[in-house]
Amino acid sequence: VISTTDFFMPIVDDPFTFGRIAATNAISDIYAMGGTPLMAIAIFGWPLDKLPPEVGQQVIEGGRSVCQEAGMMLAGGHSIDSPEPIFGLAVTGRVKIEHLKENSKAQVGDQIYLTKPLGIGILTTAQKQKKITNEDETRAIDTMCQLNDIGCKLATIDGINAITDVTGFGLGGHLSEVCLGSNVAAVIDYNKVPILPNIKDYLANGCSPGGAQRNFDSYGHNLSPMSSEVQSIICDPQTSGGLLIMVSDSAQAAFNEMMTEAGFDLEKIGEIIKLDNDKPLVQINVE
Fold it and tell me: Which of 4, 142, 197, 249 is deepest in the core (most CB within 10 A)?
């Protein structure tokens, strides 16, 4: 039995969509462990003096719709009167012990894959600043509402050594955690990293979230030197981001077959390498 919880304040205006995003994000840790979600309870805070309860009900219904998509029940929850809206889930799942995936088991030689493009933090910042196009806003929402349910299928493949989901610490932070926990290092081919369209334009227009700089301040010492643009993307905090998957050579064929059948078209973005204390923990190659 595995359990996780996550919740946050709205990052979009539409209450139903907020509920969907928050629920998708909360379930993600179960999938990252290779698990199947069984049930969830809601964590809900609502400013009753500012917003009508009917709007809050739309948030809950958005969360319920994602739970149904994930094949589990939203079995109640707890609500409080709070200064700002908050919503999330506490999720219970299950996984066979031999299939449990952790973020501390990466091995030298593993190929690294990422299932969702980066840039969500930049686009949600652009949305707050009212600089985002309708097309890019829709693209961001669709990305955040995409379940990471491929994780529970990947768990059955021997040789997928580690999985984690990329969320608030960005790619650089979550990959650093994998490397530190596994006593390895990583090299990333930046040109292969999936990035949402138009991200560079939004960065040029001042849409880098404050969280990206805080992330860099926290773990930038683990990364090789890079331009401010690359830094903003590598450290961009993701909401309901993709799975970061470490795949051994022996599992490569089965992994490729499963991902293709599931509709993914992935390129490896890097490789796990031997730790060298004289070199950066995570090397970002831009050329």
Answer: 4
Architecture of domain 102-285: Alpha-Beta Complex (3.90)
Determine contact, residues 213/173, Cβ cutoff 8 Å: no
Residue 112: what pLDDT?
A: 99
**Gap between the Cα atoms of 242 and 234, Å rounded:** 14
Q: In whole angstroms, give the CA distance from residue 95 to residue 99.
A: 6
Instruction: Report d(CA 229, CA 177) in Å as an integer.
Output: 22
Number of Cβ within a 10 Å radius of residue 131:
15
86, 9 contact by CB (below 8 A):
yes
Write down the residue that tokens 């219904």 correspond to: 61
In the predicted model, residues of the chain with pLDDT beneath 70 are none
8 A C-beta contact, residue 21 and residue 88: no
Q: Break the chain into its structural domains and give their ranges.
A: 2-98, 102-285
**H or E element in which residue 70 lies:** none
Percentage of the chain lying above the pLDDT 70 cut? 100
Domain 2-98 of CATH type 3.30.1330.10:
yes
